[in-house]
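#onboarding

Welcome to the new folks! Below is a worked example of what a typical request in this channel looks like: someone posts a single protein sequence, and someone else replies with the predicted structure as tokens. Don't worry about understanding the tokens yet, we'll cover that in week two.

Example request:
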Amino acid sequence: MSLFKLFKGTLKRNASGAIGKGSLPFDSHAKKGFIRTLIIIVIGILILSYFGFNIREIAESDTSRENFTYVQEIMVTFWERFLEKPVMFIWNQIIIDIIWDPLYKILSERSKV
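Example response:
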């Protein structure tokens, strides 16, 4: 199965009828968001450096490690108590059983043709 058939309803064509650059739904927007995020991170590091913050010292300090450990414990507890069962139910019963398995079966049958 070609990529064109898979995204047939979402592809954009230019005036000549050819599929143009950035026509796939995940093409241009994802790159812009990723590059924007990288630029924001670099600017943030530069601002911290300008004001004299040493990121390595902050990251390696005992206080930072204890804080990250504390946040990690809270997140794990929250996942185990509240999110794990509903998320795993949705993943196994809806995503896998209703969407993934039938889609995989259809694509497998079409690739044999």
